[in-house]
Model the fold of this input.
Amino acid sequence: MKTVFVMLITIGLLVGGCSSSQKSSSRVGYDFSGVDKVAVVSVEGALRSESAKDEIADFFAMELLDHGYAPVGRAQVRASLKDQEIDFADLNTTERAVEVGKLLDVPAVFAIDIPHFSEQISITGKMINVADGSILWLSSGTGKGKRTLSNMFGLSSSSSSSSVAVQDPMFTEVISGAMGDLSKQPLTPEEAQRAQGVIKKMCRTLPQKTRPEW
Done:
């Protein structure tokens, strides 16, 4: 059993090629100077760990700050909704995101979807106008990186059907037991680095909010 486990670790640490792509679009003619606060309301998709989702939201918040916006982080949004006894888990529609934006009294909200987060990651982010629910900015990016034990068998802080190579419940239980409760784990340093790189490229096209002249 030890021999098999060591072999699996060795195979899992093999490095694959690295590549990335990005495409985006923003609303032509819209005056973004009126958008001050932007609430990051949802991170949906392959990630199952709340800690990992918060990290992804924070990466977008950093980019929003760099572009002149005042982001309201996902953790802050969650705390505000908890105070108002609103279910934070059901925010995966534009209508619900807009509803939360109105409750938070912000002109725009940010919604993030992660269809894949394994050896290849795929992320989509969009800024939504709270006033009418229209999309102000939309971007998607993909990235490829290391082939690790966790993403080979779907045992990282993410969960994607394409990453699950072994369906045997006993095998998964043994590996999960050895690695701890992965549903509560943050991103690994390698996952965080790849995700932040993809997000940074995505947000290069984020409209720059006009800063006040002093």
User: Anything to note?
Assistant: The CA atoms of residues 35 and 107 lie 6 Å apart. The radius of gyration is 19 Å. The longest strand covers residues 108-117.
